[in-house]
Amino acid sequence: MPNASQTAAQRLVFTGKQAVQLENHELPPIAENEVRIRTHVSLMSIGTENIVFNRLFDPGTHWDNWVKYPFYPGYCNVGTIEAAGAAVTTLKPGDRVAYRSGHTSHANVNAASCYPIPDGLDFEKAVWFALAKIAFHGAKVAEYRLGDSVLIIGAGPIGQMSVRWARAAGAAAIIVADGLSSRLCMAQAGGATATIANTIEAAREEVLAGNGGQLPRLVIDSTGNAAVFAAAQGLAAQYGRVVVLGDTGRPGQQHLTPDVITRGLTIVGAHDCHNTPEWNEASITRLFFTLASSGRFALDGLNTHVFKPADCEEAYAVANRDRAHTMGILFNWSL
C-alpha cells in the first residue's frame, strides 16, 4: 500500500555564496504516479556545484539566471523505493533506482523519472549515471568512428566519463591531458592510451606523440575553463572537430582562433539538456548501466571521499582546497 503520509527529510542547501548547510523539511504525500525514495548516496558534481558554490560566473549568464538562493545543489542520487503511488505499476517498494534530485535523504519522484539499477551493480558505481549521461552527449556529437583518435582535455569527472565513452565507441587513440597525475592514473584505468601531465598550451608535441605523429581528429574540452578553448582548436587535425563539453561560467572569455577557417574545423557544443527521442535520460542511463554491469565501463577507484551530510561544509571545503586528490565525492545518507 502506498504511504500517504508526510515524511520528514533532510537536504543540502546553499544559502549564499560559499555557504552550505543541512536543513530539515517535510515531503508531501506522494501522488498516484510518484514513488518515495530513500537515498543511499548522492554524488557531488564537483564542476557544476563548485562553480555555483563559489559563484564563478559572470552577471547575465545562464548561470546567473539559474543560481538564486536558497539553491539546492546536486542531481546524482541512488536509493531504494519505500512507497509507490496507486497508479505506479513498473516499480515497487524495495526496488533500487537512480534518479535526479538535489542532495536529499528522501524524495518524491515521478516513477517515469526513476531508472532501475541492475542487480550486481552497487550504489556507489550506479550513482555516476548522471555524469555519464552528460559525457555521452559529448560522445554523441563527436560522432566517433571505429579506430578514431581523440584528445580529451581535463580528467575531472566529466573527462573521466568521456574517456570511457571513447573506449566504448571503439576509439584507438584516447589521449588525456590534465595537470594532475592522480587524475591521469584514473583515466588510464578507464581506457586512456596516452596521458599528458602538462598545460594544454604546451602539450602539442605530446599530443602528436600520443597519436603516431598526427593531431587527433577529435578534441573534447571537458574543463569548463574558458582559456582552454583556444588551445583546443590548435590541437585538432585539419577538418577535425572540437567538442565544447565543459560549461564555463565566463563564456565571454572564449574566442575562436584562425584554425577554424584555415583548417576547416567544426565546433560543436554538448550539454546535459540535449536530449532526443532516441537518446535521453532513460535510454542513456540504460546503456550506461549495461556497460557498467558487464565491466565495459570501468568505475573502480573513482570515488575518493565519503561524507556524512551533516559534514557538508567540510565536503565543499575539501572539493575546493584539495582538487588534486578529489574525484567522486559522495554524501552517504545512511550514515
What is the second-level CATH architecture of the largest domain?
Answer: Alpha-Beta Complex
Distance N to C terminus: 28 Å
Radius of gyration, in angstroms, nearest whole number: 20 Å
Q: Say how many strands there are.
A: 15
Write the layout of secondary structure elements.
Blueprint: E1 7-16, E2 19-27, E3 34-44, H1 46-54, H2 62-66, E4 77-84, E5 96-99, E6 106-110, E7 114-116, H3 123-126, H4 129-142, E8 149-153, H5 157-168, E9 173-177, H6 181-190, E10 194-196, H7 204-210, E11 218-221, H8 228-233, E12 241-244, H9 259-262, E13 266-269, H10 281-293, E14 303-307, H11 312-321, E15 328-332
Parallel strand pairs: 8-9, 8-11, 9-10, 11-12, 12-13, 14-15
Antiparallel strand pairs: 1-2, 3-4, 3-6, 3-15, 4-5, 5-7
Helix pairs in contact: 4-5, 4-10, 5-6
Explain the overall architecture.
It is built from 11 helices and 15 strands. By secondary structure, it is α/β, with parallel strands linked by helices. It folds into 2 domains: 7-128 and 302-332, Medium-chain alcohol dehydrogenases, catalytic domain (Quinone Oxidoreductase, Chain A, domain 1); 133-269, NAD(P)-binding Rossmann-like Domain (Rossmann fold, 3-Layer(aba) Sandwich). Strands 3, 4, 5, 6, 7, 14 and 15 form a 7-stranded mixed β-sheet that branches. Strands 10-9-8-11-12-13 form a 6-stranded parallel β-sheet, sandwiched between helices. It is globular and about 65 Å long. It starts with 6 loop residues before the first strand and ends with a strand. 45% of the residues are buried.
